[in-house]
Amino acid sequence: MGGIKKVVIVGGGTAGWMSASLLSRLLGKSLEITLVESDDIGTVGVGEATIPPIRLFNKAAGLDENAFLKATQGTIKLGIQFENWSAVGDKYMHAFGPIGRQLGLNPFHHHWLRARRDGDTSSLWDFSFNYLAAKADKFARLDQIPNSPLSGLDYAFHFDAGLYARYLRQGCEGAGVTRVEGLIHHVERNGETGDILAVKLANGARVEGDFFIDCSGFRALLIGEAMGVGYQDWTHWLPCDRAVAVPAHNGPRLRPYTQSIARAAGWQWRIPLQHRAGNGHVFCSGFISDDEATAQLMDSLEGEALAEPRVLKFTTGRRDAFWVKNCVAIGLSAGFMEPLESTSIHLIQAAVVRLAQMFPTSGCAAAVMAEYNRQLAFEYDSIRDFIILHYHLNSRTDSAFWRACANMAVPDGLAHRIRLFRDAGLIFRDNNELFAEVAWLQVMVGQGLMPVSFSPLADGVGKGQLFEYLANMKKIMSTTVGRLPSHADFIASHCASHSVSHGAGAGQ
Questions:
Q1: Alpha-carbon dihedral of residues 45, 258, 346, 312, nearest 10 degrees?
Q2: Is 250 exposed, middle or buried (0-12, 13-18, 19+ CB in 10 A)?
Q3: Tens digits of per-residue pLDDT, 415-466?
């Protein structure tokens, strides 16, 4: 095909408007971008929690952080607290940012393990500044702890995904993106090449394009129905296939972290926004009914429900390919990963950033498509293994669901990672995958996997020197946390929405 000038995005929501926002910002001078969506089709809208790379996307899209938080009823996220995952009553956090500080060639956790051997009783999270701030409900923008070499707070956001899409849409339409209202009735393809030529709407309109982005959600109108690309089903590793979601009034605290609370046959999320709390229960229909799962969720809300709960069905997995001919799938049309580690919006971001970097201005080259598909497949597969880790490393015996998860066979790469950490405390990041060593460390230790040995390099520091080093680090972090403003005060001072009262119990 010739030069690509007309891009058609099928579907709005978070995926569609994130795609339109970044492409119009970076490539808008050379592209004519049209987005087709229908107000009659709802969006899934559960992706309210994010991870730190969202800040890079927002910056690339030209968003002011305070204005974005205000427009989306957003709050700050310092990590995810996991409750009942290893055993009922246990809690740990996957906190953003580093833990401790590397000594020489040795990652910090080896020195922590050595100190434990020598009698120190410190928790791993005593050395996480993010964790200490999160548990104290504190936050400030702080790149580095003053007068120290220690890193400051790394953070992401909780926000209303529907409001985020609306906020991005406003910017896109101001930048020249054309929005067309309508339902897709037919996808027109070239009989010889197989490329998509146009989408025809139910009202008779025809929208032509040179390149198409499928953001049609689970329907996958282009990549699935029209192009026939297959879907890899990962249910044998990640058996949850339902989610019930409901908004509610906020509880008594405006926590700067997400909660993930394991239940008998799945897990529950709590996401604090300015105007409400997002709540949901991800579960496996083979072990609990929709009614039982809904009842468990409704019984555990911290505030009064603001709507009727709704059930969503899904199959965890991904497409065999994401870019075929002149069509790229982004968002739920590309795959679904349960939001346990808040990766739903990140996977949209990863796809659209790569598409911008590899955009086919002169035609869809086979090598470029193959590399895009390889990178996105690796992204999905590595995140999949990290999520499986949470389920597999459990010692719960109270339910058949958790026993089945503990006994299931896991992907070979994941099994190797578990053995490597158990035998020697070693963690290696593979090919710049999303989750770094510190993320794997927190989940493995938090789920009860402790190494039987650690690096001999950790014995190169004297016991007294090591204990003093650890004590000083804890003191610096705890003292600094004590000086931070509360999360609620930060929101009220910098990015409060006019429609909400921002006390700890806010939620309208």
A1: -30
A2: buried
A3: 999 999 999 999 999 998 999 999 999 999 999 999 999 999 999 999 999 9
> Cα(326)–Cα(356) distance, rounded to whole angstroms?
14
**H/E element, 244:** strand 242-248
Judge contact between 420 and 429, C-beta under 8 A: no
Other C-beta atoms within 10 Å of 234: how many? Answer: 22
Backbone Cα Rg of the chain? 23
H runs (alpha helix) in 151-260: 161-174
**Residue type, position 227, single letter:** M
Strands (E) in 31-142, as ranges, are 32-37, 75-77, 79-83, 91-95
Judge whether residue 505 has pLDDT over 90.
Answer: no
- Unique residue bearing structure tokens 């503990």: 406
Helices (H), 186-309: 290-299
Say if CB 261 and CB 282 are below 8 A apart: no
Chain CA centroid to CA 229, Å: 25
Would you state the structure tokens that stand for residue 121, as one six-digit string?
């009783």
Residue 9, strand partner residues: 35, 213
Mean pLDDT of 37-42: 80
Identity of the residue numbered 114: R
Residue type at position 121:
T
Residue 341 is encoded by which pair of tokens?
């580690």
Q: How far apart are the first and last CA of the chain?
A: 52
- Which pair of structure tokens corresponds to residue 269? 């999320």
Contact in structure between 10 and 200 (CB atoms under 8 Å)? no
Tell me the H-state helices in 300-425.
Answer: 344-357, 366-392, 400-407, 412-424
Classify the C-alpha dihedral 72-78-84-89 as positive or negative.
negative
**pLDDT confidence of residue 45:** 52
Q: Which structure tokens are listed for 214?
A: 């499928």
Buried/exposed 381-402: b ≥16 CB within 10 Å, e otherwise: bbbbbbbbbbbbbbebeebebb
Which secondary-structure segment (H or E) carries 336?
Answer: strand 335-336
For residues 278 and 75, what is the distance between their CA atoms, to the nearest angstrom?
12
> Given the structure tokens 């680090």, which residue do they identify?
473
| CA-closest candidate to residue 263, choices 79, 406, 402, 390 | 402
The per-residue pLDDT for range 205-249, each reduced to its tens digit, is: 999 999 999 999 999 999 999 999 999 999 999 999 999 999 999
Q: Which residues are part of the catalytic machinery?
A: 77
The rounded distance, in Å, linking the Cα atoms of 1 and 425 is 52
Whether 502 has a pLDDT exceeding 70, the answer reads no
- pLDDT at residue number 423: 97
DSSP letter, residue 177 = P
Question: Mean pLDDT throughout 339-352?
Answer: 96
Give the helix/strand (H/E) hosting 310: strand 310-313
Structure tokens, 84: 């009942």
With b for 16 or more beta-carbon neighbours within 10 A and e for fewer, the 320-330 pattern comes to: ebbbbbbbbbb
Tokens representing 307?
């709507």
